[in-house]
DNA sequence: GGGTAATCTAGAACACGTTCCAGCGTGGCG
DNA sequence: CGCCACGCTGGAACGTGTTCTAGATTACCC
């Protein structure tokens, strides 16, 4: 489940996989300082040692590139979280803590976070498959934190959706400087109350 | 409270106010067919009968322009809703219905909605004041629908925030074709459960 | 009414995302 | 080995958001 980044495409050769990695790494690096606008396609291509046309063959737009970067990062967080799950008795608190931990992870590279989230929310329909993938990983992160022993109920799934909405929107408001981290925590905790209803 | 669109700026002359209206109207018209990308600054300027430089004097970027358009539209919805409030006993249901009504209003011009919401979520810090204003109007819409007889409690305000997050994020997922209207309704209803906790 | 500062206009110019093209390698197949 | 298809390269070119400039117009104050 953590594999298969492009299910429908023919498998990439080793050199191609390496190019893809170089591109993603370069994008993340440029984003880390400078954020969304600092990720300039010409510069990504040059630093990744790839022609501009090739970059566009791998990622059909800047938004695709940054959404793919977000997939990458989220999967890292997911692995981390699976290795070291949050402790606690209350499922709601575990979910809130897990998301806050992810939040602090993003906070460590705020410019990178800004770039990825801007891309995510700016994405139009042509990127919906990739965005959906990000959404699926986030949902899985929450479900993991709930620590279910049996399949989730309809109500739980509905609550997860609202938590996901809250997570996403709170991230946006924090990135644009309209909410503090403390406020984000409160919002997430409020949404998580829906789990223990 | 529904006045004062630009509190810090010197008052506009009549001609200037008319220009501003023409620009906003033109932007909405172009957005209505074609969405975000159809709102091209040169074309807005030309159709509004204004030089490009002037357009930029009134709205320092395309995002500013579209966020201002959203303010306009939201205020119209707010007035409508105040004139014809949603009936019902349950505050949560009233809020959900009110938001769904607003939703259907946006649905009537989906391209316009797409343009405004894309702008809203793409906005960076330089637009945060204007985005905040939109957020304030939305929050007020929800508070109105709650029909409070006394000031809201801390818990109610927290719930309103989560509902607002849900509203906003659900709108985005609907616009990018990743959620149906039925799903949006469910998400809003789920979030509104927080009100009657 | 005259002077002056602010505003508006027309248009060029610039930046960056994106597209396109001609030619060069390269890897696989007869 | 020769050939072909495909991917890669370097670079030009295009579209649109944004900035800038020089001059015309307007608003305001005395």
Largest protein-protein interface: A-B, 35 and 34 residues
Question: With helices defined by DSSP (H or I, 4 residues minimum), what is the helix count of chain A?
Answer: 10
CATH architecture label of one domain in chain A? Orthogonal Bundle
Assembly level: homodimer
> And the CATH topology of one domain in chain A?
Tetracycline Repressor, domain 2
Distance between the termini of chain A: 31 Å
Largest sheet of chain A: none
Radius of gyration of chain A: 18 Å
What this model shows, in words?
2 copies of one chain form a homodimer. The first copy, chain A, is an all-alpha fold and 197 residues long. Chain A has a domain of 135 residues: Tetracycline Repressor, domain 2 (Orthogonal Bundle), CATH 1.10.357. Helices cover 72% and strands 0% of the residues of chain A. The first copy, chain A, is built from 10 helices and no strands. In chain A, 41% of the residues are buried. The N terminus of chain A is likely disordered. Chain B binds a DNA duplex (30 and 30 nucleotides) through helix 1 and helix 4.
């Amino acid at each position: 489940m953590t594999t298969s980044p492009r299910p429908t495409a023919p498998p990439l050769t080793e050199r191609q996989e390496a190019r893809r990695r170089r591109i993603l790494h370069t994008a993340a690096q440029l984003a880390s300082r400078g954020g969304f606008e600092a990720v300039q396609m010409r510069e990504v291509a040059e630093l990744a040692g790839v022609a501009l046309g090739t970059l566009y063959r791998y990622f059909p737009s800047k938004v695709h590139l940054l959404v793919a970067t977000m997939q990458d990062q989220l999967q890292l967080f997911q692995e981390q979280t699976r290795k070291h799950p949050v402790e606690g008795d209350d499922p709601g608190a575990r979910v809130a803590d897990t998301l806050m931990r992810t939040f602090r992870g993003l906070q460590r590279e705020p410019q990178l976070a800004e770039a990825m989230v801007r891309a995510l929310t700016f994405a139009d329909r042509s990127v919906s498959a990739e965005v959906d993938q990000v959404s699926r990983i986030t949902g899985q992160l929450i479900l993991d934190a709930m620590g279910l022993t049996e399949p989730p109920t309809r109500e739980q799934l509905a609550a997860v959706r609202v938590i996901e909405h809250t997570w996403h929107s709170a991230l946006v408001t924090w990135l644009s400087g309209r909410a503090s981290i403390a406020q984000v925590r409160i919002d997430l905790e409020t949404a998580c109350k829906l789990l223990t209803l």
